[in-house]
């Protein structure tokens, strides 16, 4: 251990998602995915929650994922920049529709498989460990249209085939895997999280929790397959984390905050402990929900528990039972939250809470006693290029400095953390809004919300700052 608490083999790096960076949305045989139907503007949110009017891109709409930042053609240039910062790891995702364009094809698409071979080879050439998410907010559209996506048990079998295909292909290159990105997002953005589309009269809660069961079984099968095919690999789950504070010490507020946390913990409880918790069973009963299980599902869940807990942390949340306080709900984030008067907010209304990061890490480790991996954390901001061509993102450095320091404190508290891959080390398309203006990177990409720009890359001030953080293993903040 260093005096600043980070283990000597700590995995410093960054995190990306295929659908937010690759572009080339129909190139080399790739099929359409859910995110390819999500334009910028007002329609995006409506589609994200499951109100989808078409299974094809519409005329007159701008779809940022179709080009994104063209990582598909520029990954070597970008990886060279990550290597210059000293990255030990890069979290990426594989696009299911690059491997199986329709999701249920009999044979995988060789061109798609080769792309990820080349990508992983390039990372390994630079000494960067690939950390790979199997499903990160993109379901092949054919599966949505034909089967109803994750509401249908058929997707369990198809996901298992997809998982086994990529484990077998990349077993010598990838040692860190994750099953579903932010699996709890299924409850907040059902189309984004699980490709769910709703019709008039649907019991949305029933569909969401049935889809959740299918994803949890699929996750367990993927864990089992990973352990069999790559015995020395580690495979984890991934939670959109951030603890919920009670607005007051009124026991009703405290209980509601616990319920809000459990809404997210439910998924990780099953993936980490291998069974449905009692509070979830009561929730299903109280809400008239019946989860259809097949014989053997409970055994599968028990035997398919994850090796580590991956999580994203951007800020904490707060809740209240007081109707007057609830009028202050912030719309800035996917997670509806009462505004916390003790915290500053980002330009997009997200609370900034470094102490909450330490609390959340402790909370997760106390609950699961498994290694944690911080696979997303960062600040979305509108960066400006100065007349001298500089990007002085001191506000990002300040956010990251405080959060990395808090993570160091959590490690001193006894929390085991494998690594830290900050979100969007190069500017990417925002998952929630589809904007390019909401930038997270150490590297600026010349592209705007309407798709204009050269796509040229430029280092921001934070580039050299993060380089020094990695060089010093977290001692020089």
UniProtKB/TrEMBL annotation:
InterPro entries, sorted: GH, GH_1_N_CS, Glyco_hydro_1, Glyco_hydro_1_AS
Sequence similarity: Belongs to the glycosyl hydrolase 1 family.
Origin species: Heyndrickxia sporothermodurans
PROSITE patterns: GLYCOSYL_HYDROL_F1_1 (PS00572), GLYCOSYL_HYDROL_F1_2 (PS00653)
One GO location term (cellular component): cytosol
Any one GO BP annotation for this protein: carbohydrate catabolic process
Catalytic site positions: 376
Record's keyword annotation contains Lyase: no
E.C. no: 3.2.1.21, 3.2.1.86
Protein name (database record): Beta-glucosidase
Enzyme class: hydrolase
This protein's record includes keyword Manganese: no
GO terms of molecular function: 6-phospho-beta-glucosidase activity
Keywords: Glycosidase, Hydrolase
Highest taxon in the source lineage: Bacteria
């Amino acid at each position: 251990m260093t005096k600043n608490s980070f283990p000597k083999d700590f995995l410093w790096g960054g995190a990306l998602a295929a659908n937010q960076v690759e572009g080339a949305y129909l190139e080399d045989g790739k099929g359409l995915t859910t995110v390819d139907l999500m334009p910028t503007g007002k329609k995006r949110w409506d589609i994200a929650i499951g109100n989808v009017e078409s299974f094809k891109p519409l005329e007159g709409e701008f779809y940022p994922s179709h080009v994104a930042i063209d990582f598909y053609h520029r990954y070597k240039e970008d990886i060279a920049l990550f290597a210059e910062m000293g990255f030990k790891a890069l979290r990426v995702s594989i696009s299911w529709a690059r491997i199986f364009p329709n999701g249920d094809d009999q044979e995988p698409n060789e061109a798609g498989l080769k792309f990820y071979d080349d990508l992983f080879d390039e990372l390994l050439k630079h000494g960067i460990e690939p950390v790979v998410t199997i499903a990160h907010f993109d379901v092949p559209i054919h599966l949505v249209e034909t089967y109803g996506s994750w509401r249908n048990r058929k997707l369990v079998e198809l996901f298992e085939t997809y998982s086994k295909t990529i484990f077998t292909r990349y077993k010598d290159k990838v040692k860190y895997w994750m099953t579903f990105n932010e699996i709890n997002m299924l409850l907040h953005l059902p189309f984004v999280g699980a490709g769910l589309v709703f019709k008039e009269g649907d019991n949305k809660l029933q569909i969401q929790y049935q889809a959740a069961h299918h994803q949890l079984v699929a996750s367990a099968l993927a864990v089992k397959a990973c352990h069999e095919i790559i015995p020395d690999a580690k495979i984890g789950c991934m939670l959109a984390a951030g603890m919920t504070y009670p607005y007051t010490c009124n026991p009703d507020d405290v209980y509601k905050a616990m319920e809000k946390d459990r809404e997210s913990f439910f998924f990780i409880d099953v993936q980490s402990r291998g069974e449905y918790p009692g509070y979830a069973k009561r929730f299903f009963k109280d809400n008239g929900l019946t989860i259809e299980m097949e014989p053997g599902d409970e055994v599968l869940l028990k035997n398919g528990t994850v090796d580590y807990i991956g999580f994203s942390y951007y800020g904490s949340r707060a809740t209240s039972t007081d109707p007057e306080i609830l009028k202050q709900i912030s719309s800035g984030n996917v997670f509806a939250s009462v505004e916390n008067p003790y915290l500053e907010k980002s330009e997009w209304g997200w609370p900034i809470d470094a102490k909450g990061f330490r609390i959340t890490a402790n909370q997760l480790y106390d609950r699961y006693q498994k290694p944690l991996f911080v696979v997303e954390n960062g600040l979305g901001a509108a960066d400006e290029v100065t007349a001298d061509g500089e990007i002085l993102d001191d506000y990002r450095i300040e956010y990251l400095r405080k959060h990395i320091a808090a993570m160091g404190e959590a490690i001193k508290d006894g929390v085991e953390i494998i690594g830290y891959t900050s979100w969007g080390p190069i500017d990417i398309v925002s998952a929630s809004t589809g904007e390019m203006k909401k930038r997270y990177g150490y590297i600026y990409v010349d592209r705007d919300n309407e798709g204009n720009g050269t796509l040229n890359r430029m280092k921001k001030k934070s580039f050299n700052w993060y380089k020094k953080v990695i060089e010093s293993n977290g001692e020089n903040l």
